[in-house]
Amino acid sequence: MNIIVAIKQVPDLDYIRIRDRRPIMEDVPQVIGDIDKSALAAAVDLKESAGGNVIIVSAGDENLEDTIKEGLAAGADEAVLVKDARLAGMESSVIGTVLAATISKIENGGLIIFGEGSADNYSGQVVSRVAQILGYPQVGYVNWIEIEERVAQATRSLENEEETVEIPLPAVMSVVSEIKEPKIPSVSSILKARNKPKRVYTLDDLGIEIPENRYVRTVINLAPVSQRKGILIKSVDELVKVFESEGIIRR
Amino acid sequence: MEFNLTKEQQMIQSAARDYAEKAIAPLIEDIVEKNEVPLEIIEGLKELDLFALPISDEYGGAGAGYASYVLAEEQLSRICPGVAVIVSVNNVGAAAMSIFGTEEQKKKYLPMVTKGDGVFSFAFTEPGTGSDPKQITATADRDGDFYVLNGTKRFITNSSYEGPMIVFAKDTETGHINGYIIDKFCEGYSISEPWKKMGVRGAPLYDVYLRDVKIPQDNILGEPGQGFWILKVAMALGKIGICSIFLGAMLAAYEEGLAYATAKTHRGAPIAKFQAIQMAIADMFMKYEAARWMAYRIGYLADNARDKGDILKDSAAAKIFITETAIDVARIALNIHGSYGLMEDYKISRVWKDVIFGPQVEGVSHLLKVLVAGEIFRDLKG
Amino acid sequence: MAGILVYSENSKNAHELLTAATIIGSALGLEVRALSINNDTQAEDLAERCGEVYRIKEDSLKLSDTSAMASILDQVVRKLNISVVLLSSNRRGKELAGRVAQILDSGCLTDVYGIEVRDDGNIDCFRNGLGGLTVVSQVIDTEKKVIAIVPKIFEAMGNKITGVIRDVEVDVRSSGVNVVRTKTKVRDAVDIETSDIIVAVGQGLANKDDLPQVEKLAQLLEGEVACTKPVATDRQWLSEERIIGLSGKKCKPNLAILLGISGQVQFTVGIRDAKTIIAVNTDENANVKHISDYMLVADIKDIIPELIEKIS
Fold first, then answer.
1. Which of B187, B255, B362, B375 is catalytic?
2. B265–C285 C-beta distance less than 8 A
3. Chain B residues touching residue A67 (CB < 8 angstroms)
4. Residue C284: closest CA among chain B residues belongs to which residue?
5. What is the CATH number of the domain that holds A87?
6. Do residues C223 and C249 touch, judged by C-beta distance below 8 A?
7. Model confidence pLDDT, tens digit, residues B242-291
8. What CATH fold (topology level) applies to the domain C3-167?
9. Last residue of some domain: B221, B241, B266?
10. What are the φ and ψ backbone dihedral angles of B349, each rounded to 5 degrees?
11. Domain end position, chosen among B204, B221, B238
C-alpha cells in the first residue's frame, strides 16, 4: 500500500518584503512548508508498516519540479505532479479538485496525508475537499498514526483532548507538525532526488477546466498598519517609568 | 555564464547551514574552550555525507563535487572553522587516495573516513621544511617487503583520530619523495601534546613522531617518484578547503559587523545611520561578494579539471585573496564594534583570532605569490 | 425565507457564532437557525438565545466521523434552505468546514476573525494572508457560503428569549471512523486570551531556570505568562495553551511584554492587537522592534531580576 503525501509549494515567507503595505512576491524562493515536511517525515516513518512507496502529489507552476526535489530528498520515493501556469495562486476548491484527480491516477494509494494547513494560507480546507471528492473517511490534526492491514489508528489532537480513532483505509488525514520533526536530508539523498521517478500532468491531461468564476474573491491583501511608537529605552529605570505612565503600576 | 546555484546546490548549502546551526552552534563555546570537536559532530557530518562530500559514493562519499563542497564548507566554517578544517584535511587525504590509490587501498581506507570511524590525516610539514618539499628529512627504508618510516612531522591536523595518514618521506634507496600510507596509532606512532593555538579552535595541531613504523610495500601511494605530483594535487585541493573556510569566517565577520551596526545606538539612533559606518558596511559587502565568487569558481574549476594539479595557480591566487580579505572584513567588523569587539563576550573577537590564521597556513601569502607569478611566466613562455 | 445556520459542538463557540449570525442575518434578511447534535443541554441553551433550534438525536452519528457529520450538515442545509453556514474555526470546525463546502459546491473561508456585511450584500471576511504578513479581506461568491469563525472573537449571545426546538430527521452515513479512546489533555487552566497583561517569552530565554523569574514578574503585574510556539512544543517549558500566534492564541491585552522574542510573523499575528507592546531583546534589529511601542535592548536574564526588584 502506498502512502501519498500532498505537498504545497509556498513562497518562503522570510523573503517576502513589504512595500507600501503590499507584499513583494517577485524573486521570493518557492519552498516546501514546515508542516508539509513534518507530514512527509511521518509518511517515511510509516512506509515500512505500509509496505509500499511514499508518493508526493503536488500542483503548481513551473518551479514545482525544482521545489519538489526537497521532498524527494527528504525520503519520498516518487512524485506525481500537476504543472500548469494557470495554477499559480489558485483557490482551495480548484486545488482540491486537481489533487483528487491526481491521487486517482495513483494505484494502491492507501493513506493520503496532508499538513494541517499550508504555510501561507493556512486554511486547512483542501484536505477535507479532497477527502469528500474521493469519498474517503478522514481524520484531521493527527499527531500519531499506526497502520494495520486495511485500517489505521490515528490520534486527533483537539484543543482539549486527544481522540484516537480507528479508520478504514483508504483514508485522508491531516497532521500537526508535532507528529515528526523533519530531518536534515543527506547530500546523497539530495543528489538522488532528481533521478527519482516523476510523472508530470497538465490540467488538460487531467481533463480539468478552471471554472470561470472564482468561489472566493480576495478584495484586500495588505500588511496591517503599525501605529507603534517605536521608542527605544535604555534602562530598567526607564522601563519602570513606562509602566507608571501606562498606568500599569503606581508609585 | 551562469551565476545561480542549482536547486541541489541550494539544498546542500541549506543542509550544511541547518546542521551547523542546530548541532554545532550550541556546542561552540565548549569546542573553543577545549580545542576539541566532539566525536558526535563528526559522526553527524558523516551521516549527512557532509564529511567527505567530493569522494565517490562508491566508497561512501556523496560524489557531490567541489562546487557543492565549497558551499557546505563555507556554512560549516561560518559557525565553526575548526570543524571545517577537520573536514578539509580529511578530504585532502581521501581525495589524494581517490586519485592515486590502488583499488585495494581505496576499499580499505576510504569507507573508513567517509562513513566509518576514521579521519584522514596528511603529513607533509616538518620542523625544518616550511613549504619546500625538497627539505623533507623523514625517511623510508626498504626492508624486504616492507618500508620502515622514521621522522617528525609538525602541525598535523586530525592526527589524534584513528584512521589513515599519508606521510611524505624520502626513500633512502632512490632519493624519491613518496607518500606512504600508515594507520595512526600503529606501533612506532606517537603524537605530542597539542599546540596551544590562538584560533581555529577545535582542530588541534600536533607534532607526529614516527619511530620505526613498519608498513607493507603496497602502502606506497601512487607510483614511486610520484610524490611531488601528489603533493601538487593535494595542495590545490587543500587550498579549495582553505578558501571555503576563510570565506565562511569572513561571512561570520560580515554578519557580526552588520548586526552590531544596526543594534548599537548612539544618542538614540543606531550607529548604522552614520556614513562612516555605512562605508564600512559597503566595504564588507563588496569584499565578501568578490571573495565569494572567487571561491565558488575554484570549486567549479576543480570539478572540471582533468588533473586537479592544474588549478594550483588559480587556487593559490584565490587562497591569498580570500584569506587576506577575510582579515580585512574582520578588521572592519571589529572597528564597527569599537572596544566591545575586544571582549570575548562578542563573537567578533573569536572570529578575529580565526581569520588571522588564513594567510599563514597552506603556504604563506608571499610564497604563494611567487608560485602564482612563476606559473604566469611559464604560461607566457608557452 | 432563506436562513443562516450556526453549528458548533462547543456550546460557548456556538453562542458566539449566534452573535455573528445575527449581524449577518439582520443585514441580509436571513433567519438565524442553530443546530445541535446529540446534546440536549446544548439544544436547550441554544433555545434561550436563538428562535429556531434544530436538534438531531442519532446515536450512530459520531462527532469524530467528519464525513458523516458533513453529510448531516448538507442535509440540514438543504432542508432548511440555508445560504450561510457558520462554524467554529476550532479544529473540528475547520475539518468539517472544507468537507461541507465541497458537498455544497461552495466557497469556504476558515480562521475568519472579522466580518463586515457590505451594502451590496457581500460578506467581507477578514483573515490572515501569507502566514500573517498581511491581512486579507475575502468574499465568497457562491450561492451558499461556509464560514468558520475563530473562537472568542464575538461576544457570546445572552440568554434572553424562548425559542423553539424542532427535531430534524436525517440519514446517517457512517464512514467507519470509530473512537478507540479519548484522553483529556493535561490542561493548563490559563486563559491568556482574556488576560489584561501578558508576559510572553521566546527562545531568547536561554535557561529554563530563569522561567520562575518570568512567572514572578507576571504575578507582580497581575498578568499571565505566554510564549512562542517553540518554547511550548520544542522545549516543552510551558503548556500549549500559552502559545501565541498563528497556530496558537490571538490575544489583545492592554499590555504585552515580549521577552527574548525575535518577532517572526507567525508569532506577531497573535499579539499585534495589544494596546501597548514592550519588547526586551538583545538584538535591536530583531523584527519585534517593528511591532513595539517600547524596546529595551538588553539580555532578559539580567533585566528581569532588576525589574522585579524595582517594581516590588
1. B362
2. no
3. 7
4. B263
5. 3.40.50.620
6. no
7. 999 999 999 999 999 998 998 787 876 788 889 999 999 999 999 999 99
8. Rossmann fold (3.40.50)
9. B221
10. -65, -35
11. B221
